[in-house]
Amino acid sequence: MPDRTEEPNRPRVRTPSVWALLGLWTVPALLSTIETVMFARTAGRPMPAWRAFIAEAPQWYGWVLFTPAILALARRVSLRRPVRAANVIVHAVASLGVGLAIAFADALVNAWVRPSRATLLVSTSNWFLSALPATTLAYFAIVGASYALEAAAELRDRERRAAELEAQLREAQLSALRMQLQPHFLFNSLNAIMALVRDQDTTRAVRALSLLSDVLRATVNAGDSHETTLSHEVDFVSRYLEIERIRFGDRLRVSLDVPASLSTALVPRFVLQPFVENSLKHGVLRERTGNEIAVRAHADERALTLTISDDGRGLGAGESVSGVGIANARARLERMYGSAARLSVQNAASAAGVVVEIQLPLKLATEAVA
Length: 370
Fold this sequence. Notes:
The protein is α+β, with helices and mostly antiparallel strands. Helices cover 60% and strands 12% of the residues.
């Protein structure tokens, strides 16, 4: 059975309008008319140009009618690699059918324009056999042109998607940088460091300055790659959370559970940042006893699951987690992985707090990714 499954991920090329097809096939029709007039004069049987045009028109303008159907069949019964024998047979039969129809139209018109003693059946057979190489070539040229146009459209679509991903990566990078340079974060971090200096806790003050420098440097120096390893992403988030722990002390508890076997798994840059920040802003540190933020990762053979959870106040009735960072994360996941990625943000099932779950295709880096 031929493979009749359309390829939904390929961009579809619009079928040319009738006027565009008429304009396209008029060119060979006029050239063929000129050739016929010249040969008729050479043979001593001059033919008016209008009569020659009518005689030649069926074999060219017939393609105006058949081109949309050929394009539709090319999309439905693909001749792309791997080429199936059944699909080739379908197109070969369709090519013969188109050639026969055009030959019949040629025989019918020429019976009036250039009468002969041959019957319509014989004339049709003669036209079909003499034009068979040309009609076969024209048929498969249309199929090939449709695939070439789709390939060009697919390339443009990939370039557009790559440009959008680049813009989203930059937006995520700048969003993270803005978060870190916001007065409340920077001033609070510096105030915490100043307090350590006043208390002559030099070791912790130096550690805090080092962490702040590392976090800012990691954001500013992020490369052009849309992905990084899970170990780099967790390291970035853990440094940010350690700065916050300097401010809040034991009130903020952090739990990281990322198996070493997943350290080279590829994830989008800054994918954890907006969810951790959202937990700090809205979910935790509202109780005197403090709260916990946990980042975990696990995987099966095909999927990597990242979980960011807290034990804060959770989402109220009708409340949703929103924000530029989270909206950007959703858009990037969809753009990068399509339906293979999943993002859910909801209240914890058995305790207080919010659970964010990000599911990605499991891909391991083959070389170091910064």
